[in-house]
Amino acid sequence: MSADSPVLSASAHQLSAPSLTSVTFEYVDAPPSLLDDSLRHRSLVWTRNGHGLVGFGTAARLHTHGEERFARARAWFAQVIENAAITDPLNRPGTGLVSFGSFAFSFTSVFESRMIIPQLVIGRDEHTAWITLTGTAEELEGATYEQALARANAAMDDAAIAESDAGSIKLTSGQLTAGSYVQAVHKALGHFEERGISKLVLARDVLAHSSTPIDLSKVVHALTERYGNCWTYSVDGLVGATPEMLVRVTDGLAEARVLAGTLDRAAAGADEPDFAQHHLFEDPKQRNEHQLAIDSLTDSLNPISHGMSAPEEPFILQLPNVWHLASDVRAQLRADASGALPSALDVAEIFHPTAAVCGTPTKKAGVLLRELEGMDRGPYAGPVGWVDSRGDGEFGIALRGGILEDEKLMRLYAGCGIVPGSVPEDELAESWAKMRPMRQALGAE
């Protein structure tokens, strides 16, 4: 499994799944900092509080787009699993054959959604650590733990880039200027009644120009250090630290964290006792926005689950940049007629887009936001995460992030939930607060 191994790929129009071999080894005496130590510029990353996955290289890849992007991804990955020879003595979520995924928010996007099966994965959970090698049968014949460890070290060496001084960052308007965003919020408020919409999530983008090449490993390190309680992701240049879990599936149990309702921790008076309680938890506008997001998710979950557990009231999630109203929802998934349980990728498709990133009702809101935003969101607010051959996996919503468009340019995104009573200038300020994690990570505070 050398660095120049051929890449097996499939286009959106030709779903040719490769025959892969995957072998997992327990990582003996792994240090607590294993995942942080493994981060590199172009590594694939999904991590939270020191647990998760870091991938290197490409054993197989799918690019697809349009309305069928999820269906093609599911069909392709199912073929990969059917063709694969998997040796996995650990049999834990994230061991064995794993694919990272990133999907466009909209079926109209020119961004190509993708599934990437790494050649090598370093993983860790609360109990153990592992290395998984994936490639052709010839490449992995007789593979040993010592060889896996050597290949992991070689992969990290190959993925490293030369150390350089941090460059200066200049921020400029993206597809939607600040003034245009304020106007879009005004227009949205005027359309709610006639369109039958109760909430609309409007996003904007900002360009971060660096005087030197941007090292994604440094960006990811900065995010994990400051936002360790979020899910930090990096997939093909899409990087961020999302506080919102779209779905986690573990042995048929689905869990989601819903966020809606935001308060900037840099707001005037934020250091006062019970500030978040008074201005977030007890604010009717914020509570209404949050309830719309909860209703949207539970409506999607009901047909495929039973035994749902959803809290009567949200809790206040404190992040370094903002407070959110948050609710954790869980349910046991229902098997289909063949006895198969939905996978993490199946549920991600069913849930997307949620009211938290689109609006209520979602179909009507999606039409209006395309009219008012005037930009292609690409993978922003789309599902990002991983799924394994058992169907276990985790997909977050690609928030608090950006995408590397060339070595010195990153596009940052943020969106805000607009409901009756929203103040356009306040929503603009909130969008800046939501970009703060990436601005900090880039050194563009």
Structural overview:
The chain has 445 residues and is of the alpha+beta class. Helix content is 30%, strand content 33%. It has helices at 34-38, 69-83, 137-140, 145-159, 178-195, 216-226, 275-281, 284-301, 344-351, 362-373, 424-442; strands at residues 8-10, 21-26, 44-48, 51-56, 60-64, 85-87, 98-102, 113-117, 120-124, 129-135, 169-173, 199-210, 231-235, 238-242, 245-250, 253-264, 305-309, 315-318, 322-333, 359-360, 383-388, 393-397, 401-406, 409-418. Strands 2, 3, 4, 6, 9, 10, 11, 12, 13, 14, 20, 23 and 24 form a 13-stranded mixed β-sheet that branches. Strands 1, 5, 7, 8, 15, 16, 17, 18, 19, 21 and 22 form an eleven-stranded mixed β-sheet that branches. Helix 5 (178-195) crosses helix 11. The longest helix has 19 residues, at 424-442.
